[in-house]
Structure formats: structure tokens, C-alpha cells
Write a structure and sequence with these properties.
Blueprint: H1 2-31, H2 35-38, H3 42-63, H4 70-97, E1 100-106, E2 109-114, H5 120-129, E3 142-145, H6 152-163, E4 178-179, H7 184-190, H8 202-214, E5 224-228, E6 234-239, E7 246-250
Helix pairs in contact: 1-3, 1-4, 3-4
Amino acid sequence: MRFRLKAFGFHLLGSACALTLVLGGLYLGWYYWPGWYLTAVTRVLLIVGSVDLVLGPTLTFIIANPGKPRRTLARDIAVIATVQLAALLYGGWTLWQGRPLYYTFSANRLETVQASDISDAEWDRASKENPAFAPHWYSLPLWIWAPLPNDPDAAAKIVQSASFGSGEDVIDMPRYFKPWEAGLPQLRERLTTLGEIKYFSKAEQTLLHERMEKLGLDAEKKNALVMWGGSTRRLVAVFDLESLKIKTLIKPD
């Protein structure tokens, strides 16, 4: 039993170190708050964690028989490690493809733009037409303003395609992105009270009011905007009305 426990412990430690290195790097680079919450990557984490921290070490515990030939034992552990590595690569690649690249203000809300939302063609076009805000493989999340283009025909085409879900929205087109500060006058006009945000259930509205009160924020002031994630995740962004800096992002759950 001691041999099995020792093998289990070493395997668990190695798996935990590898998982921490990969997920920690992604978290610190791209998924720190509010990225982790808004992209709803819990399912990916559960799969990777289950394989790397539970299944792998447990299988090692089962097969670690001190009477087994060392070559056979090494082969069995190598097979388990290969499965774990595949799971880790799957999880890492999925998180890399879904990493947040932009937090945008457009129209009347804030939205998260993930790497997978931007097409290869748009990636190239933005690099040529708007290099200051074009994405790169090393790009960290940026807060930007994503207005419609000045060309009425181009703007109408984008609105139509986004409305019918048949094409890209302007938030997926970095060639039109502008500095966050340039959009603040428009953002100020779009601020609303918490009660006027219709995207939350009654229970969520109640919880949001309670959390705003606990933070000493006035829910009756026009100081808030909804912030959408890549799935159905939403937050409420509360702004300082003088500086228009975000005071806090509040979860509805």
C-alpha cells in the first residue's frame, strides 16, 4: 500500500504542477476578472481537472503494484500520462481559442470579444487598416470603443447582418475599433439605472440591488450598463459619474 500511495502522490503532484502552470498562465494573461466568469469555461476546467487530478493519479494508484516488472509499470504509467497530456492540451487549446481579447463598448452595452469571434480575414484586415488595435497572438485584453463606421452603407450592412445573425457585428471587426476614452461621451449618454436593465430576472435584480447597497452604490442613479459575456453570462458595470471609470462589476448570481 505504501508503494501505491507514494506513486499516487508523485503522480498527483506532477499533474497539479503541470495544470497550474498552464491554467495559471492563461488566467494571469487573459482570463483574470472578469474574463474567467464571462467566458463560462467551467465545463472545460472540469474535464481537464477530472482527467489530470482525479483519473490519472487514481489509475496510477490502481496499477502501481510493487510486484509488477518495472518496464511494464513504466509503460502503463506512460499510457496514463499520455491520456492526461491529451486532456491538458485539449483544455489549453480550447482556452487559448476562447481567450478574451477585447472588452468593448458599443451601442448601449459592454461586450466581451473572444479570439474565436474574430475571423482570419478580419484579423488580417485589421492589421493593415487599424494596427493600433489589431489583435496579435500575444495580445492581452483591451478595453475599447467599437462604433459603427462613418460610411452609412457600411454601417447599415453591419447592423442588418448582426440583427439577423447572418454576419459579423462591429464588435468583431477590430478595423473599426477606437480608443476607449473616445467613446466616453457616448457611454455617458447610455448609462442607466439598475432597474432599467431588462436582462435580469426578478431574483437577480433583487440580488444586484442588495450587492450595490452593500457596496454603498446608489441603484437609482444612471450609473450602470450591462456587460455581456461570450455565453449567457452577464454582469452589471457601475461607473463613477465624474471620471467614468468602472467602480465595480457585479455578478447577478
